[in-house]
Amino acid sequence: MSRSSILGRIKGALDQARVEDLPRTLPEFPEYNQRVDKFREELEKAGGIFLDGRQPDQCAGLLTRVMEEANATEMYWETEDMLDKHGIPFVLGKTKDASQASFLCSYHFRQTVKMPINVRAKQYQRSQLGRISISASSARFGVAETGTTVHVVRSGVGRLLSVLPASHLVLLSEKDILMNGKELFDRLRLGEEGSALTLVTGPSRTADIEKTLVVGAHGPKKLFVMLTC
Amino acid sequence: MIKISNHTHTALSDQQLQKNLLHVLEKTVTDRNEAVSDVPNWEELREYARQVKSHTLSRLDYYLEELESKVQGKGAKVIWAETPQQAIEFILDLAHHKQMNRVIKSKSMLTEEIHLNQSLERFGINPIETDLGEYIVQLAGETPSHLIAPALHKSRGEIANLFVEKVGMSATDDVVEITATARRILRDHFLTAQIGITGANFAVSETGTIVVVENEGNIRLTASVPEIHVAMMGIEKVIPRQSDLSVFLKLLTRSATGQKITSYINCLTGACRDGEMDGPREFYLVLIDNGRTRILRDAYLRQTLACIRCGACQNVCPVYQRLGGHAYGSTYQGPIGAILTPQLESVEKAPEHSFASSLCGACYEVCPVKIEIPHILLKLRNKTQTKKNNKAAHLPMERWAVQLWSWIMQSSYRYERLAACCRVMFKVLSKREKLKSFIPLLKPWIEYRELPSFPEQSFRDLYQSGEQEK
After folding, report:
1. Cα of A61 to nearest chain B Cα, Å
2. Number of Cα atoms under 13 Å in the Cβ half of residue B465
3. Complex ipTM value
4. What is the pLDDT of residues B18-67, one digit of tens each?
5. Which of B38, B68, B185, B416 is 20 to 30 A from A177 (CA-CA)?
6. Inter-chain residue contact A211 with B215, CB threshold 8 Å
7. Which residues from chain B sit within 8 angstroms of residue A156, using beta carbons?
8. Domain boundary assignment for chain A
């Protein structure tokens, strides 16, 4: 068995008498009074687009801008809960087989978003995901230090809807913005809620050719983060 | 035996390579320095990370068992492999058993180390590399020449030609167009892949989570689309607590690319669960030894295993800056390769690696986990020479030269005389170019360098004349 022989060799190699202690306290992390400002600054540095949707009456205009920039007429929303959470008014249309439905889709004539949004449930088909122009998901947390949003895959949420489309919109509540990475790992436990947790900072990028930055390697080319209250 | 000296002339006379290296490394170093100067307690973070690694490595059995039980607790399987063969056999068995042969891969140095692709290809499985740099290297039939930027040795023109030739891209050297071509081609591979293989930057033992860091999004896809996700890691990658991640991630991304954070950091705990919309149905974690338990035996050299593969030591190394990665002839290159290769293989198999350094110490200065690379190099040199001496292959000339040097250095008078001789000799040499090639040992040294001129006056003379003026 390779397991026992590897572990055996490790035990044999280690001098148990001399073990350096694990450090008990983390080094200090920067703290910010103006979390939203810092978050915005870092997100924009990373190439993301920040939208301030804290005034509910501005959301429609901001979402219209998102649809225009993504050049899309259909928006795919991860869950119904996210619209509730971020206070986006919506009307749920009737679907033939609601039990199979898994995410919501809204159509916006001439890329113009009007409130309340008319959404209808759609069935999850992997083959379709590749053709979606823009999707929206809700962030569990934001991290001001780096302009990062934190996404937790859990029941009702998948891994692919946020990575396959050319553009991605993240909704983030102002109260969920944390100061730094230390605070983040204090607030959640890896693997507890779901199988995957992804930290997202700006659009997909590469610099593998002559260290020249190119946006949109495999993931979204445009990343919007809309702050809600 | 891997001999760096066989490749130095090729590397040094390759004008294109020299241009690429100069261009890319300078920018990387500047970016890194800028990102680090932004963190006032950088030294504290380094020391924290060093302590965590030192502790974990000296209790490695405990943390690996903890990791194993947590990963198993999430319904995933853990595979232990002592040798590359065992790891490869596992993948082959899995592919055979599931009748799957469409494999995609994200970047992983460990899979390079065990030559995973070449081995799988022999059995009719052709894994597709999805990281842009790795894809370029794979198309060219080469190996990576840098930990972070595998295709660093290639210019955009060379890459464009490669794409025109291999995947039928229409002629352009626009980097955006090349990237778009790769995105289009690889998208199809992603959507039809059955097995996705990734590496792991860290594995958190308390939660059973593997952490994979990237910018492109190819790891997100590799670990999400296929039905099976296999993560392969060296046994040294484990860290005890999730809170440690905040420090390691900060150190890693700033050291590697000068970014405060990368676009995506994937924290994956097992396969997809009931109710989740997608994700792999099965998750396997392969723990690979391949010589690492041997390195653990030496309490000092053990720190070699603390490496988080950021590549910062390569970027600042005057030897790597000149030679690039391929000249090292090994998977790991630059300073970390110089200490890792002789230990993973043996000093007999890589006798020149520990000597491919000027011991300037720049690698230690930038190392985010404070690996004492220069000291380790000296220890390995010592090991190499001792092994050689045992075989009575030591040059008596070398011993005499060192004895002579030691005798001269013990007296200021003798040192002064020697310096005076050198001053005269260098003066003559600078006037008569031809003479240079007649001096033994000098020729290889000046082949790619200018012979420096000796100052007219020694420091001692200058100091004394200054004293008199007072």
Report:
1. 27
2. 6
3. 0.96
4. 999 999 999 999 999 999 999 999 999 999 999 999 999 999 999 999 99
5. B38
6. no
7. 275-277
8. 29-228
